[in-house]
Amino acid sequence: MSILVCGEAIIDLFVSIDDGTMRAQPVLGGSPYNVAIGLARLGVTTSFFGGLSSDIFGAAIRSRLVAEGVGVAHAVESARLTTISVVGKDTDGQPAYAFHGEGKADRSIDVADLPKELDKDTRAIVMGSFTLAVEPVASAHLALARREAGKRLISIDPNLRPTVIPDLARWRRQFAEFLPDAGIIKASDEDLGIAFPGMSHREVTANWFAAGAALCVITHGAKGAVAWRPGRDPIVETGRPVEAVDTVGAGDSFHAALLARLDQYGLLSREGVAALDDAHVSEVLAFAVTAAAITCSRRGADPPRLAEMLPNPANADAVRAGVVR
């Protein structure tokens, strides 16, 4: 069985200035890109659908995907440039972001670029991040979700980016369009606090269930994660402290591991997710937070391979760690 991951693959450009000297380090990134690599490393047959530039950055992204075992037959090559997200610090020393993405390759996918037909063994489609809300790619993804939802599980991570979509009312309207087709929604408590201020997680997930979702998983940073299902008590996976190098890509590793574990159980379908019992939910959450914790233990978005996820006394303290976003 396989999973198709849709969305952006971009460059994160980390910039620092020391005594008037500017230093910059480009890093391959993008939430869907990270999820695709995370899935492949966990043994899931994975392919990527998104716009890749023919520039030097796009070539590096394509090469890395192929090296990780991610299929790129559905990737759409374009002469448009690769989006660059500049990451630096403001005058108070806090992270500051600037997106250079207007008209770039990842945003320029339209309905005509959609795969005409997916392989019959494609069981799930992953969507998320800012390509859910910028045009024309958002409309293309929505058309794909509507076309395939009756045949395949759709899993969405909003992964809100206020610097890209500052109009939250517009973002909420766009995100709501995807809800009827979403079987799984994975989100962070940080995202929900920004997108739906004043609403409890129970209220937010109730709205999502009313729209059609079967499973909602909310990550809570170092506190762990909570799975919500319609008419059922939430399942809590408590986090443990982990010596984190950074948390970059932890939420993407969580999302990948969540889907990979469902795939391993043969439950990667809307029917399978709806039938999950409490024991399965707890185990899937534990697997996902383990993947996130391992990612946090090393620098950058570096998701674990399946061999690293096997029970091992050396990483027992990380088994239920929960530094996930």
Automatic annotation (TrEMBL):
Belongs to the carbohydrate kinase PfkB family. This is Fructokinase. Keywords: ATP-binding, Kinase, Nucleotide-binding, Transferase. PANTHER family: HEXOKINASE FAMILY MEMBER, PSEUDOURIDINE KINASE-RELATED. The keyword Nucleotide-binding applies. Residues 5-303 form the Carbohydrate kinase PfkB domain. The keyword Calcium does not apply. It comes from the Bacteria. It comes from Bosea robiniae.
